[in-house]
Amino acid sequence: MSSVMPQPQTAPIVACTISRDVQNFDLLIEDMETVLGESWGDLGFGEVLAFLRQPESDAMEFFALAMDKEDEDNLVLMSEIITHAKERNIKVILIAEDVTPASLHSLLRNGADEFVPYPLPEGELAQAIERIRAPEIPVVTQQAAPILQSGSQKNGAVLAVHGLAGGTGATTLAVNLAWELATVAGDTSPSVCLLDFDLQFGAVSTFLDLPRRDVVYEMLSDTESMDEESFAQSLLTYQDKMEVLTAPADMLPLDLISPEDIGRVIAMARSHFDYVVIDMPSTLVQWSETVLQEAHVYFATLELDMRSAQNTLRFKRALQSEELPVEKLRYAVNRAPKFTDLSGKTRIKRMSENLDISIELQLPDGGKPVSQGGDHGLPLAMTAPKNPLRKEIAKLAASIHQLNDDQAKAA
Ligand SMILES: Nc1ncnc2c1ncn2[C@@H]1O[C@H](COP(=O)(O)OP(=O)(O)OP(=O)(O)O)[C@@H](O)[C@H]1O
Ligand SMILES: [Mg+2]
Q1: What is the predicted pLDDT for the residue at 341?
Q2: Ligand 1 and 168: CB distance under 6 A
Q3: Domain CATH for 60
Q4: Of 99, 133, 167, which one is at a domain's C-terminal end?
């Protein structure tokens, strides 16, 4: 158990027990230690509401609210704790010893997520924690093609993401960045179109659980006759928040598409959306240059390993030999070492010196919840809103949007 005050160098506190006196629940202490090691704290009933106003409570995943017969007089305060926790997206597990069913019922109705009796049966707390950690699967709204206004003259910003080595998180960044932008300002969020240009192996459809469709192939293979309507037909609306062009159902030979085709699709998307986010294939193709020229920012994802380092050198050389605008590149190290990992920081510094690149973005390892979210077809904001990777991408989206907004106002 740790104090709930922030402690540098140690694991962040992600859970707290709440009780009159935690020593009355020694089995709970044991089980919390088994599941969470040091990354949990302990609060008295009277301390919780003040704690929820502190920034340290941001990282909190759940409370284990432990009570016995004597605490039944305090039901109002406990209900209040549950309500406030829910408002902050913190789950609540009730641990109860000799509490009447009526009290339990009222607390569960108030929003407590799980109930485990005390003394804790073997493994029950761990299972309850696993259940509250499993992503809630929201109902996915029916996808439909959007209606695009003809003659729209938006001039959307183009953000491309290119993995410099396979599996370095390009699609994860593209999908989540698109989603964060599409939800950055509630009802007044900008419009976003996500284009999966990884035409053969594109995984955007998997990460968002959208079907791959033949109309995309048709649209891409004849962009000359593409109009607003046929472009709209090739898009799918995701959760009412953004539009997505998935990769086509059949593998499209990458060289079947010309730079002109890609140019037309980007132009069409830009005229209808505030942001166009593009997931690029790792391979350089004849239209890579088109996207680089069109992009306002071109993210290149890599990891701290030899494979990424060598690919980065080759990639940079290829662009430089064609005199392409390398200054648009923003290198993003994925699965970056933790803030507290000093040797990791040195490795990043050395890599950026050796490759002569500036690494502006570091994306933390978000662990299993990241691939689990992808498997469920949902952005991280929905399955693991407090995941460190999600937080970093949300920050990036907010800063891009702020910058864009400022520029729009200055213009
Ligand atoms: N920061 C991270 N923390 C944890 N898991 C991650 C992180 N970034 C990516 N992943 C996981 O790694 C896998 C590969 O990521 P992703 O598909 O986004 O990479 P990619 O560069 O698009 O790969 P590809 O070369 O196949 O297109 C996915 O399962 C994803 O969930
Ligand atoms: Mg990918």
Answers
A1: 87
A2: yes
A3: 3.40.50.2300
A4: 133
